[in-house]
């Protein structure tokens, strides 16, 4: 195995862990929309010096940046709606688990990245295991609204994964692409929060500021590591490995939010690991 895939593997796993923590912060927020807007704004401000220090992205990258900003806005809206309607242990697995197969399919169609039979089987097993995390324990019943928004968020995740893989390669610099991405995303989310919350925005933003600042560190980390991995490795393995955030998210939800995990989900974690291993071998 060459050095690049090993580094991409580490980056994707690091991105997964950071994403789970970031989602936990979001779930704990009193006003998730304002929280996400403030967090993204802090990310944009933190990265703003890079806008001057790094070369301006070429137009070939800007079409991906603009499309990515629209997709990530839709993702945030769907994620917030799902989190408001269901437990993190219900919506997060569906939200993240449906994305790898979609990302692999999109990468095959859009980017022409080949998927062999073993890789396809591994993606199928991993995706099925991740989705199984979301199914309630005996006696429970899934919430249709929460699952619908979670599936929408998964579709957006697959879309921006492939879009950003193309964009970061066109930009030639992961840091430059990352910086402009957060500027555009902060602008769209901030405008949405201002319009929806009106005069209450300032007070709610002050309330969310401390946790949003902490979350922004994980926000930059998860997206930055994902972009780096996508710049040096094929989309499908990176996307699938990044979705192991479901395991970290389930553990955090069980420990911090006191949501049920269950023996069945522990078994699904082992099945997931097998599917991802098969994907890598494929």
TrEMBL record:
Provide the transmembrane region boundaries: 6-26, 33-56, 62-83, 90-111, 117-135, 144-162, 174-195, 216-233
- Can you give the residue ranges of the EamA domain? 8-131, 147-279
- Keyword Membrane attributed: yes
Q: What is the name listed in the Swiss-Prot or TrEMBL entry for this protein?
A: EamA family transporter
Instruction: Give the UniProt entry's GO cellular component terms.
Output: membrane
The record's InterPro entries line, in alphabetical order, gives: EamA_dom, EmrE-like
Superkingdom is: Bacteria
Q: Which species is listed as the source?
A: Alkalicaulis satelles
* Keywords, sorted A to Z: Membrane, Transmembrane, Transmembrane helix
């Amino acid at each position: 195995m060459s050095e690049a895939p090993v580094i991409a593997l580490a980056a994707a796993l690091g991105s997964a862990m950071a994403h789970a923590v970031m989602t936990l912060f979001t779930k704990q927020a009193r006003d998730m929309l304002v929280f996400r807007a403030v967090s993204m704004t802090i990310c944009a401000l933190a990265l703003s010096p890079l806008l001057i220090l790094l070369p301006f992205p070429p137009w070939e990258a800007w079409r991906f940046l603009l499309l990515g900003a629209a997709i990530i806005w839709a993702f945030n809206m769907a994620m917030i709606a799902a989190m408001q309607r269901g437990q993190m242990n219900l919506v997060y697995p569906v939200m993240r688990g449906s994305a790898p197969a979609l990302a692999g399919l999109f990468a095959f169609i859009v980017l022409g990245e080949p998927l062999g039979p073993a890789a396809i089987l591994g993606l199928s097993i991993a995706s099925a295991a991740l989705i199984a995390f979301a199914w309630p324990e005996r006696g429970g019943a899934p919430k249709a609204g929460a699952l619908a928004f979670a599936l929408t968020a998964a579709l957006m995740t697959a879309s921006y994964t492939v879009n950003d893989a193309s964009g970061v390669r066109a930009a030639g610099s992961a840091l430059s692409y990352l910086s402009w991405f957060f500027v555009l995303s902060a602008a769209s989310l901030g405008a949405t929060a201002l319009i929806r919350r009106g005069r209450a925005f300032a007070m709610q933003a002050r309330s969310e500021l401390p946790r949003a600042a902490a979350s922004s560190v994980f926000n930059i980390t998860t997206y930055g590591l994902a972009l780096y991995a996508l710049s040096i490795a094929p989309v499908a393995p990176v996307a699938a490995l990044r979705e192991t955030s479901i395991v970290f998210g389930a553990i955090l939800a069980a420990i911090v939010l006191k949501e049920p995990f269950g023996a069945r989900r522990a078994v699904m974690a082992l099945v997931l690991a097998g599917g991802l291993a098969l994907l890598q071998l494929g």
